[in-house]
Write a structure and sequence with these properties.
Layout (H helix, E strand, L loop, with lengths): L1 H20 L2 E7 L2 E8 L12 E2 L6 E3 L57 H6 L3 E2 L3 H9 L1 E8 L2 E8 L5 E5 L3 E3 L2 E3 L4 E5 L10 E8 L2 E8 L9 E2 L4
């Protein structure tokens, strides 16, 4: 009886140990903010829903939502230029292509001015039919659409309406995630393109918009910005 009782205790302890070891901490990013869920013992994955796009009569189709968002009003995730996953902070010293002293890719040495597919967050997360927009595609969007500041479901942003066919997309004001803080959320936003200005290895083209209008500028590549993918696959 004593041997059975000891064996039973050992078995029970082992089961508890195994069960304890099987629990994990899961991190989930929603609207660019991380939520921590502890003591998770199982995960259920649902079928991935294909992103939607809108035909604005331009050279590419524009996604209806930001990368990482489920609706047009959601901000989605922030990404550093050339990185494909969101982070807690956006400093130069935690940027993928900076070694603490200098940038290591997309520099004057390698001559790369446009993101390779492996470093394009839209391609990496949505597949080869999607990518980040080019400078020319952003300029095309600027020149062939009206930009109207709109408050939509509590979120400020631009309704971008095509002057070619009247279709529109909504681009929320996500602000920009610089170092450890998000600035100008709800009032302004910067969206990455996939290109660099010539000979400026520290900054990359982005479309910047505020209530007063929009422009194409550049910003430091380690900054966390939102991404509006474009669709380049077959219809």
């Amino acid at each position: 009886m004593k041997r059975f009782f000891i064996t039973f205790l050992l078995a029970s302890f082992t089961m508890l140990f195994v069960n304890a070891q099987s629990k994990h901490t899961v991190y989930v990013w929603v609207d660019g903010e991380k939520t921590t869920i502890e003591n998770v013992d199982s995960l259920t994955f649902i079928e991935k829903v294909a992103p939607q796009y809108v035909d604005l009569g331009l050279s590419v189709k524009w996604a209806t939502c930001n990368l990482g968002a489920a609706t047009p009003e959601e901000i989605g995730n922030y990404y550093a230029w050339g990185e494909t996953t969101p982070k807690d902070t956006y400093f130069k010293n935690n940027y993928k292509y900076h070694d603490g002293t200098e940038y290591t890719k997309y520099t004057e040495d390698d001559g790369l001015l446009e993101l390779e597919a492996m470093d394009d967050a839209a391609t990496a997360n949505l597949g080869e039919d999607w990518r980040m927009p080019t400078y020319d595609e952003i300029e095309e969007l600027q020149n062939n659409c009206t930009w109207t500041w709109t408050e939509k479901d509590g979120c400020g942003g631009f309704t971008v309406t095509s002057t070619i066919n009247g279709n529109s997309i909504f681009m929320p004001g996500a602000g920009d995630f610089y170092e450890d803080e998000v600035y100008r959320k709800g009032d302004a936003a910067e969206y990455w393109t996939n290109e660099s200005p010539v000979k400026k290895t520290f900054s990359y083209y982005a479309v910047v918009f505020r209530k007063g209008g929009m422009k194409i500028g550049d910003t430091e590549r380690f900054t966390g910005l939102t991404i509006r993918p474009v669709y380049v696959g077959a219809e």
